[in-house]
Amino acid sequence: MRWYVLAKVYGECFVCAMPPQDCRKELETTLKERIMVLDGAMGTTIRTYGLSEEQARGKRFADSKKDILNNGDILTLTNPDVIGDIHKRFYEAGSDIVETNNFSATSISQSEFFVDDPREHGGKKDPEFFQSIIEDPFLVELAHEINFQSVRLARHWADNIGSDTGIKRYVAGAIGPLTVSLTNSPDPDDAGFRVITFDQVLVAYKQQVRSLIAGGSDLLMVETIFDSLNAKAALVAIQDVFDEDHVNLPIIISAAVGRGGETMISAQTSEALWNSVAHVQPLAIGLNCSLGPDLMKPFLLELSQCCTTNISCYPNAGLPNPLSPTGFDMSPDDMHRWLGEFAQAGLLNFAGGCCGNTPEHVAAIAQAVRGIAPRIVPTLAS
To answer: How far apart are CA 113 and CA 67, in angstroms?
Structure first.
């Protein structure tokens, strides 16, 4: 067997047994045969384990000044058994692909849990502040470790369950939207002000991408896009890393849209989003989060009609409902009905669930799309 160097991170070389271009061909072959199943909501499923703040901190972060229970990514380091068990359950439920547990694993987003907010001391968040963040050795190394170890956890269960079942399983390195916006100013008196620059976001995303590749991701997923300019920075980061490190992994791009079908901060329609990212030739583009499948359907239809690649869809389990066990309205049966309807309508190549979707929801989704032909990807000529 040949081995291929994927990336060099922090002076270490990491390798993978499958060349990335073969992974894309493999996925494209499968997508012509059937709808592939994504996973569900990591955050929702984490909450079912009832972890305490003390358990989330573990020994390593016991003395942290800020609460970190809501920093689900840190559980990769402090509670790897919980995160591994969740990956295992999603694969067993029928997921072909699971996302890594590193949605906010950049120096920028992790700073929310480990750095005092300057606004609490009469200062402000601005490019000078974020320059110190992206250069902070602790935050940079922490982000790398979360990303790398998150891939290794998912990789372990993908390989084990894939081997046991004879069905290949994949790992998608998750790249989340950040806690800052490049599009909008937070200052109503200064429309041109931005808390952070494009180049600073680019640096943080490049660090994340390299760590995800180093860990052994099969593909990269730029997801839950609410600010299309942030997403553009992530895609530039990916392309830069591909060019500089001579690698090329499949990419899935997924946007969170509001009730009007627009990305929630940058107000870009799904068709406009496709036109702005088509040049990277993603394996798929799609919609996730923000809406339940009922409200998402018209925007999914619009995207399906204009794009010339595969379509992914992993909506929330309806709208938030604090009285529901999962915090969202829809049951596994509801998701079975809606995603089955999408599949029957020829809208899907990938199906899964976002907030509120547990392994039980994903099992219902997997059952709903089984045996239904995938969406036929149109060509430019058609």
So the answer is: 7
Question: What mean pLDDT do residues 327-331 have?
Answer: 95
Distance (Å, rounded) from C-alpha 231 to C-alpha 249? 17
Biggest CA–CA distance in the chain, Å, is 61
The residues with which 255 forms a beta bridge, in sequence order, are: 225, 287
At 15, is the secondary structure helix, strand, or coil?
Answer: strand
Contact between 249 and 220 (Cβ < 8 Å): yes
Residue type, position 179, single letter: T
**In contact, 292 and 341? CB cutoff 8 Å:** no
* Element housing 286 (H / E): strand 284-288
343: CB partners within 8 A, 6+ apart: 35, 351, 368, 369, 372
* Domains of the chain as residue ranges with CATH: 20-104+155-174+219-369 (3.20.20.330)
Task: Quote the CA–CA distance of 264 and 258 in Å, as a whole number.
Answer: 5
The CA–CA distances, whole Å, from 316 to 110, 313, 348, 354, 376 equal: 24, 10, 16, 5, 25
How many other C-beta atoms can be found within 10 angstroms of the C-beta atom of residue 334? Answer: 18
Say how far apart CA 25 and CA 3 lie, in whole Å: 18
DSSP one-letter string for 178-223: -SS-SS--S-TT-TT--SS-HHHHHHHHHHHHHHHHHHT-SEEEEE
Look up tokens 């394996």; give the residue: 283
Q: The dihedral of CA 129, 132, 136, 142: what is its sign?
A: positive
CA 208 – CA 336 distance, rounded (Å)? 34
Query: What DSSP letter does each residue of 122-158 carry, written as one string?
Result: T----HHHHHHHHT-HHHHHHHHHHHHHHHHHHHHHH
In angstroms, the CA 85 to CA 102 distance is 16
Find the helix packing angle between 293-306 and 332-344, rounded to 10°: 20
Whether pTM exceeds 0.85: yes
Structure letter (DSSP) for residue 263: B
pLDDT, tens only, 181-239: 999 988 888 999 999 999 999 999 999 999 999 999 999 999 999 999 999 999 999 99
